[in-house]
Design brief:
Blueprint lengths: L2 H6 L9 H4 L7 H22 L6 H31 L9 H8 L2 H17 L16 H11 L13 H31 L3 H28 L12 H26 L9 H32 L2 H9 L5 H20 L2 H5 L1 H23 L15 H26 L12 H5 L6
Helix pairs in contact: 3-4, 3-16, 4-5, 4-6, 4-8, 4-9, 4-10, 4-15, 4-16, 5-8, 6-8, 7-8, 8-9, 9-10, 10-11, 10-15, 11-13, 13-15
Amino acid sequence: MSHTAASSHGAHHDPLSRENVTLAGPHPMGFTLVGVGLVLAVVALIAGFIGAGGVTLKHALAAYHIGSTATLAICLGAMALVMVFHLTNAGWSATVRRQFENVMAFTPVAALLVLPTIAIEIATHGKLFLWLSPEWANDHLLHKKAGYFFWPQHHEPGHATFPVFFVIRAALYLFVWTYLSRRLWKLSVLQDATGDRFLSLKARFTSSWGILVFALSTAFAAFDWLMALDFRYFSTMWGVYYFAGAIYCGVSVVVLILASLRRAGKLEGVVTSEHFHDLGKLMFAFTVFWAYIAFSQYFLTWYANIPEETSYFLHRQSHGWQNLGIILMAGHFGAPFLILIFRGVKKSYNALTFMALWAILMHLCDIAWIIRPMAYLPTAGDAGPGVAGVWLDAVGIAACPLILTGFLLRKVGSGTLVATNDPYMPESLHHKNYV
């Protein structure tokens, strides 16, 4: 095609023009949503402290912990994929990676949002975390596992012991995630400013060791903050289970961001149906992977038939929690598998938007299935506080996701929407799927 003909078809338009890859500025609703999220968090915890409507502090902590750990998972999933993109030289990802980086940038704050639950648990000697509760102080299994929580101190039954090792690990997770997220973010925006291709190699080097440290820290954080709620249960697959859900939901949030930008008339010719197709493949892959890990974990526990471990699932198969389990089987795996298997769905950002929203809802249900039954574990027959409990769940769970949403509304509009000087940008702009 001649230059004249190309121009007549609009080919002269630069897809990386400032108008196409920037917004007018941070969204004004960002600060509002952050404020609303903080208020909801405070309201939920205060309601629990004073017992408003018959709710308990244990219930309030459970609701808030669901929202905070689910939000953290989204950010960790985005961080993992940023490192994978660098390690594999994934050329197609150059135009979408910036939005993964934007989500990743919230990781330190997301980790901090988990800490109020931990601090209150330690101060009140265990409402959700059974191993902190005096009621379980004489448990033989806790004595065997005490070093994991209380080292270097010796845990004595009947005496409050500060969980030194548990707190040290929490600080270590925060340090690792903060360093990795800040390092990868700074290298990316510095490359935007300088065009230095060597910065991509630095990001790849950071990712080469960072992915291992990330995997270990994420797995142990999942052990500490989710699995250890009931110290009697143990699964070496738990970290992978949490990680699989994190990737699935992290990709879903990025799909929502990119689809919103496309509807706003941005990223024309930059993020195409081919990129959404690949993001849809990731969603499909990790909902299958999540189901595989979830089933394997359940199957091995069932086959071993160890009472200390089976009690975890038995509690979640009674008192109404089995209904949530059925929802997860159908909604977290069955429906997404049958829908995302179609190529047309994965290539349509409108269809993927619906699937992404559904994925986030199922992710929250997954974390709720882990945490929420702990609010009534000692008295499993208790139906809870009724309507007040429903409102507390809604308020507590929504708090941290709203803070993340407000942050992203500010973050996405504060810089370029893509890594404009990424050396793989030409490849990504012409990306085409053949499978």
